[in-house]
Amino acid sequence: MSVLVETSEGDVVIDLFTESRPRSSLNFLKLCRMKSYNYCLFHNIQQNFAIQTGDIDGNGGYSIYKAMYGEQAKYFEREQVPKLKHNQKYLVSMVNNGSGYHGSQFLITCSETTDVLNGVHTVFGKIAEGHDVIDKINDAYVDDDNRPYQDIRIHHTIILHDPFDDPPQLPAAPSRSPSPPPHVFNSDRLAVGEQINIAEGLTTEEMMEYIEEKEMKANTQMLEIIGDLPHADVKPPENVLFVCKLNPVTNSEDLEIIFSRFGSIASCEVIRDWKTGDSLCYAFIEFDDVKDCEAAYFKMDNVLIDERRIHVDFSQSVSRLYWNRNTKNQLKYEGGQKQGRQDDRHQRDLNTNRRDSNTDRRGNRYREEENQGKRGDHRRSVVAPYQESRDETRRRGDRSREHTSRRKRSRDRSREIDSYRRDRYDRHEEPSRRERHSDDIRFRWHDEQGRESKREKEREAKDKDHDERGRVGRREKQRETKGKDHDERGRVGRREKQRETKGKDHDERGRESNREKDRKTKNKDHESRKKTQLREEIQDLENRIRKQKVSTHKKKFKKEKRNRSRSVD
To answer: Which residues have a Cβ under 8 Å from the Cβ of 363 and sit 6 or more positions away?
Structure first.
C-alpha cells in the first residue's frame, strides 16, 4: 500500500487508500510495476496550490487497463464513494481528463485551501514522507505556463507493499528499468542537474556590462514599485532634446527660433521655478521628426547662446509621461506626437498665448498639481504656466485688497460696539433707543415697553432693605433678627431659645431636652455596668466554694482509706 518515488529533487513515499479507492490504487500500483512513471516530467507547478505529473506518453497518459483490455479501456471512471475532500496539504489525486475519467496523471496538493478540486479529481493517497521534497518542487521557478525552467523528473518507482494480485491480462513486468527516451535529452529546458555559468565565454568588460544592466533593471523595477515609473520597460521619447547651461535671460521663444532651422518643433519649454518663475537654466525641445532631433544634437552641442556655451543631449526623462496605476499600459504624453486623453486642468497649449515671462514675472501664474496618485507622495510640480494680462492681474489684486479691507472694517466696527456697550453698562447709564431695540439681549436694561427687565430688578433689589411696596426685604430681616431675642411678632428668636433651653432639663412644652436625655442615658449605663460586675463576683465566689468542697471531700476519702488499710494489717 506504499510506493517510493525517486525524483530529481529527492525521495517521496506515498501511502495509498486501497480500501476506499481500490481502482485508482490498483491503476497506480500496476503502472509503477510496469515502470511507466520513469523519467516522467513535473510539467505543471502552480505554486502554493498543486504540482502535476504522470504524463507517461506526452499525450495525456493512459491507465493500466489499456494494457489489459485494449484501447477502449484507455481511461477508467472516477470513484465518487466514499467522498474524500481536498482539505489538507500533501494529498495525492488522480487528474480528471475533462470527461469524468482518469488515466495516469496525478497531482499533489501544496495548500490546505484546495476546495475547488473537490468533485473533479479523486483523492487516492497522501505523502507519508518527503514533505520537504514537495516544498522544494513547489518553490521552483516557472514560466507563464507554470512549467519549470529546469526539468524536474521522476527517476524510479519502487513498490513497498502491494495488496493486489496481478491480473492475468497484465503483461509481464520488465526485468530492468527502461532506458531514458530521446525526448529527455532533447528538452528545450535546462536538463536535470545542469548548472548555468554566466561568466563562461565573457570578457571582463562584457561581464561588467552585464552586471550594470542587471542592476539597472533592478532599479527600474524598484521605481515601478514605488510609483515613479509606469512600468520597468518604459523608455524616454527619442524626439526630445535636453538643453542645459542656459543663460537665465534665454527664453523659450529664443530657443524655438534657434532650433527651428533643423525641422518642425512640437514644443519648446524652458523650465522655471514654480514659486518665483525664475529660469532653472535648462529646457526640453521636442521635434516632430526623430531625424531632425538627431541633426540638432550633432550640430548644437557646445554652441554659444546669450554668451553661454550650452550642452545638448537626448532627454532621459519620463516625467512628462502620465499614466493611470490601474491601466499602466495606457500611457499619455503631454504635447507632441503621443497625445492622448488629457485633462484641461493639467494641460495647457504652450504654443498659444506665449509671451516673454522675463519682462513681467508677476503676470505668470504657475498652477500646482498634487502628485499623490502619480508619484506616491505630496510633492508639487509645475504643469504649465498660465499667462494672464495686466488688467486681470490688477483686477485680481483690487478684489483681494477690497475683500481684506471690508473684513477689517467689519471686525473693527464690532469691537467698537462691544467696548461702547460695556462702558455704558459699567456706568449704569440709560441705553439709547437703538440699544433698547437691539437683538443682543446681553446688555439690555429695559424691554421695548420701557419696563425694567428681571436682571435690573434683581440688581436693584439686591442692595435694598425694603421693596417697592414698603415691605422689609430679606436682607433687612436677616440683619434685624440676627441679634434679637424676639422677632417683630413677639415670637422668641432662635438665639433666645438656645440660651433659655441651654441649662434646662425640659423645654416650654414639657419635653425633655437633649441634656437631660444624655444624663439619664449615662446613669442607666452606669447601673448596668455595676450589676454586671456584681454578677461576675458572685459567680467567682461560688466557683471557689465548690472547688474547696471537692478538695475537702477528697482528703477525707483518702484518710478513711488509709485507716482501713491499717486496721486490716
So the answer is: 357, 387, 388, 389, 390, 393
* Cα distance between residue 245 and residue 99, in whole Å: 73
Give, as one character, the DSSP assignment of residue 223. H
* φ, ψ at 64 (rounded to 5°): -70, -20
CA distance 520 to 528: 12
pTM of the complete model beyond 0.85: no
83-97, 472-486, 493-507, 527-541: range with highest mean pLDDT: 83-97
Give bridge partners of residue 368 from the DSSP assignment: 382
State the DSSP H helix or E strand holding residue 94, giving kind and residue range, or none if neither: strand 91-96
How far is it, in rounded angstroms, from Cα 7 to Cα 42?
10
Count each helix (H run) and each strand (E run) in the chain, helices first.
Answer: 14, 20
pLDDT tens by residue, 222-273: 888 887 777 777 888 889 999 999 999 999 998 999 999 999 999 999 999 9
Segment 475-514, tens digit of pLDDT: 666 666 555 555 555 555 566 666 665 555 555 555 556 6
d(C-alpha 116, C-alpha 514), whole Å: 94
Query: Could you give the 3-state DSSP secondary structure of residue 466?
Result: strand
- E strand map for 207-259: 240-244
In one-letter notation, the amino acid at residue 17 is F
- Residue 240 backbone phi and psi in degrees, to 5: -120, 130
Element (DSSP H or E) covering residue 24: helix 22-33
Which of 101, 105, 104, 160 shows the shortest CA–CA distance to 129?
Answer: 160
Which residues is 446 bridged to in the sheet? Answer: 452
